[in-house]
Amino acid sequence: MEEINSLMQGFSVALTPFNLGLMLVGVILGVLIGVLPGLGGANGVAILLPLTFSMNPTSAIIMLSCIYWGALFGGAITSILFNIPGEPWSVATTFDGYPMAQQGRAGEALTAAFTSSFIGALVAVLMITFTAPLVARFALKFGPPEYFSVYLLTFCSFVGMSKGSPFKTIAAMMLGFALAAVGLDTVTGQLRLTFGFTEMLKGFDFLIAVIGLFGIGEILLTIEEGLAFKGAEAKIKMRVVIDTWKQLPKYWKTSLRSSIIGCWMGITPGGATPASFMGYGVAKSMSPRGANFGKGEMEGVVAPETAAHAAGTAALLPMLTLGIPGSPTAAVLLGGLLIWGLQPGPLLFQEQKDFVWGLIASMYLGNIAGLIVVLTTVPFFAAILRIPFSIVAPVILVICAIGAYTVHGSMFDVWLMVIFGVIGYIFKKLDYPLAPLVLALVLGDRAEDAFRQSMLMSQGTMSIFFANGLVASITVLALVMLFWAPLRAGIAKMRGR
After folding, report:
1. How far apart are CA 237 and CA 91, in angstroms?
2. CB–CB of 344/323 below 8 Å?
3. Are the C-beta atoms of 157 and 477 separated by less than 8 Å?
4. Cα-atom radius of gyration of the chain, to the nearest Å?
5. C-alpha to C-alpha distance for 198 and 193, rounded to whole angstroms
6. Structural element, H or E, at residue 391
7. CA pair distance 414, 416, nearest whole angstrom
């Protein structure tokens, strides 16, 4: 009941004309970002973060989170109409969405995708509403060893649950740790890795890094690929929407199953992309219509969209309660909170109640606004894809440069952004993941502080990370996650005998 009362208070914070306007603008910008391949939720939030510098933190996070919702919705449009996933998590949507569009059922596929996305996000927001305060209260008992163990669990989970090479994930993470170490050592007061540049005394600014890594890197890659779009026309009529909604209840088991998969993958750092593939695969294996998957089966659109949105939304739970992002976009949002002077974690629920519950309330409202916007504006956004990318790309590059310059009013930051952009481009060309780098850049110094405080408490003894049941269980779980891939292979081999 306390959560309901707090949520009502949150609605009173979010439901101001200014915040409602920001929600609408955020959703439209987000759909635009989601529609354009080469951008994406994390990239869009990073590029547009400077727009929020003059806002109060609550309004700023509402706008950024609505950009995120919009990007989640927008990715499905290009997947279904053009067979080009606007986002990585929309790849699974193309399997059945594009065949439906080719069969003249584009409106049906888009309505199913948007509605399933809405349901997945709604389930995850309900979970956040009722579990976040409990997790935050529990986390208040944490000391430096417990916090370091949680950071360790996050880093190890990225390694263990990574789809690609674990060595590439570790290499990216190590570079992030090195970048996080640049600047003034808060414990000894010594300068580290500044190479005489006074601009680097405070270390690399998180915002400059993410604009370069995500924004510039993606644009360079997209320019190289020379995107051109050819696809189906689409116009969603109210009759099609109502007829599709009448069909969706028969897929309730798929929606529920995909929501659970998505919430789990969002809380752990699995992310929306693995969740969408897992949701699609499980639905295909359990559905009586599994043989039709890949040929234009509506259930094949419902499953990945529900799972992806549930995962994308659930990733905000560990960010708010523990200060640990569950996805690259959550990492960018966490960086925004730090820029606005807010410390994500359990104390946020005690000290910034209006902010936290205003954000949670805005998740409900932003989700509804997103559904309405995408259902009514599909032809407009589909038409944008016919603008040559040679016109769109320079505009985005200029926005990135302005965003980097406005952080400190320094050209040095713009050059840093370009360097980070080249690093991001090289990472993508060599198939190195960016998310572990960003995670280590955001959490590296905090993990280091927690580790050094723990060592001071234990006088240098590592046994402090096994000193009680709580910290020992988190540490052991972290080690299991680190070696999860070989453990899983060993278990599968034993079952095969």
Report:
1. 25
2. yes
3. no
4. 22
5. 11
6. helix 389-408
7. 5
